[in-house]
Amino acid sequence: MKGNGALVVYLMAQAVIASTGPDVVCPSQPLLASVSENVILQCHLVPPVDMRDMTVEWSHGHFNYTVLLYQDGKDNFKEENKTFTNRTSVSYQGLNKGDLSLRLFSVQLSDSGTYRCSIHIEKLQSSCYVNLSVAENKNNRSEHQQNTDWENNRKTEIIIYCVVGIVIILILIAVACRTEKGPECVAATCVEVCVEVSCAACVGL
């Protein structure tokens, strides 16, 4: 009797799934990644349903570019956006258990955004959404970027040294002007630096 009861419950559950379809569940928290990393966008069915002979579709962005389309037991590469060519996959064994998670390889900054995980079971369609945020990996910057930063820092140092040197020279000239012992002098009202002239002549300009 217990065995028959369990069978009845199972058949009733399958009937409900057939009429309403399973729930497609995605994580609510956004997924964070760095450039060139491999990520997994989680998506699964509740209750689990074997999707190996069904249709699973992942799309991206406002225009719903097709990231991956699995149907008739295989990937449909013709519908896949070229941006994601050879960079996506789903687990065949996972589909057997209702795991629709998308594996995205070597992520790029342009991969950031909202992804839609959808299933098609006969006339039923259901979906959920995953947000991916990709940031540049500062530890893996290109050699060109590092050289550019070094050159910019070097130029900044040279400018600082020049400014400091000019300030020191002006201070020395001002001191020489005050003591009337130096060959050069500068007065507050002067519009040019006088070289090898007396302080009186400089002030008189």
Automatic annotation (TrEMBL):
SMART domains membership: IG, IGv
Protein's GO biological process: regulation of cytokine production; regulation of leukocyte cell-cell adhesion; regulation of T cell activation; T cell receptor signaling pathway
Highest rank taxon of the organism: Eukaryota
Ranges that cross the membrane: 158-177
InterPro entries: Ig-like_dom (IPR007110), Ig-like_dom_sf (IPR036179), Ig-like_fold (IPR013783), Ig_sub (IPR003599), Ig_V-set (IPR013106), IgSF_BTN/MOG (IPR050504)
GO cellular component, one term: external side of plasma membrane
Segment forming the signal sequence: 1-18
Main location: membrane
Annotated GO MF terms: signaling receptor binding
Gene3D superfamilies assigned: Immunoglobulins
Protein keywords: Disulfide bond, Glycoprotein, Immunoglobulin domain, Membrane, Signal, Transmembrane, Transmembrane helix
Compartment(s): Membrane
PANTHER family (UniProt xref): BUTYROPHILIN (PTHR24100), ICOS LIGAND (PTHR24100:SF151)
The protein's name: Ig-like domain-containing protein
Organism lineage: Eukaryota, Metazoa, Chordata, Craniata, Vertebrata
